């Protein structure tokens, strides 16, 4: 899904699923529901813990803030699918994650876009604070996956920075995979598996029942 093209107003014509979100004045991007907004200014690299708990308790989409249905989408990479793996980003609608990978979120939609360093001790990060800003530049980003699941739960990873909330999906229904193509995330569409040929119907034998003729001696005559 290519990034949305700018409209005549100078702002991107975002899909209807995210048009109700406030737009950041500097980056001209819709502000995801779960993003922290100190003093009213969104910090795209930090999740609001209160909103994260709200999304989990009410099964709300982290992107648009609206209720999710039977299936949810989780963003990660192949490691997230390993035994003991987890997802860092909060669940969203499948369509909302499509929009994020299509350009709304530069970090996950662009191969060489990196996160800003977080020196605020109140902001929990997973891993070394010096390591994270190198992802996308000195450290290559792994290709993304979108895991679709019906059930998920929140957990916490403990490290020297404190507790970092993560998400577990014990039963993934299906997986959509992405690859970096010219520095942009593109979905890898595998060849469709041909439907199995229908089984041949069993041969039907037609049996004609003929009326048995009686012997002459037993026939009735008018």
Secondary structure layout:
Blueprint: E1 35-36, E2 43-47, H1 49-58, E3 72-77, H2 94-104, H3 106-109, E4 144-149, E5 153-159, E6 162-168, E7 172-181, E8 184-187
Antiparallel strand pairs: 1-2, 3-4, 4-7, 5-6, 7-8
The helix content, as a percent range, equals: 10-25%
SS-based class: alpha+beta
Number of helices, counting only DSSP H or I runs of 4 residues or more: 3
Query: Going across the major beta sheet, what is the strand order?
Result: 3-4-7-8
Which stretches of 5+ consecutive residues score pLDDT under 50?
Answer: 1-10, 117-129, 191-199
Largest sheet: 4 strands, antiparallel
Number of domains: 1
What number is the mean pLDDT?
76
- Principal-axis shape equals globular
Relative strand content: 15-25%
Q: What's the total count of β strands?
A: 8
Tell me the span between the first and last alpha carbons: 89 Å
Short note summarizing the structure:
The protein is 11% helix and 21% strand.
Structure, explained:
- There is one protein chain.
- This protein is α+β, with helices and mostly antiparallel strands.
- It has one domain.
- 11% of the residues lie in helices and 21% in strands.
- It has 3 helices and 8 strands, in the order E-E-H-E-H-H-E-E-E-E-E.
- Strands 3-4-7-8 form a 4-stranded antiparallel β-sheet, with helices on one face. A two-stranded antiparallel ribbon has the order 1-2. A two-stranded antiparallel ribbon has the order 5-6.
- The model is unreliable at 1-10, 117-129 and 191-199 (pLDDT under 50).
């Amino acid at each position: 899904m290519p990034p949305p093209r700018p409209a005549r107003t100078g702002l991107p014509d975002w899909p209807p699923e995210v048009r109700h979100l406030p737009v950041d004045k500097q980056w001209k991007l819709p502000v995801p529901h779960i993003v922290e907004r100190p003093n009213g200014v969104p910090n795209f690299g930090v999740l609001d813990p209160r909103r994260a708990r709200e999304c989990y308790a009410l099964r709300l989409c982290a992107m648009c803030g609206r209720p999710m249905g039977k299936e949810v989408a989780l963003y990660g990479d192949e490691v997230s699918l390993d035994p003991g793996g987890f997802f860092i980003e909060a669940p969203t609608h499948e369509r909302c994650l499509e929009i994020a990978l299509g350009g709304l979120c530069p970090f996950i939609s662009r191969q060489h876009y990196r996160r800003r360093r977080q020196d605020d001790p109140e902001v929990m990060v997973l891993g070394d604070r010096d390591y994270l800003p190198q992802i996308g530049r000195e450290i290559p980003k792994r290709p993304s996956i979108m895991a679709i699941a019906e059930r998920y739960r929140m957990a916490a990873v403990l490290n020297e920075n404190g507790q970092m909330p993560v998400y577990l999906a014990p039963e993934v229904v299906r997986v959509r995979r992405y690859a970096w193509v010219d520095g942009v995330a593109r979905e890898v569409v595998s060849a469709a598996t041909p439907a199995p040929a229908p089984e041949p119907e069993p041969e039907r034998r037609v049996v004609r029942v003929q009326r048995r003729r009686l012997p002459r001696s037993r026939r009735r005559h008018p």
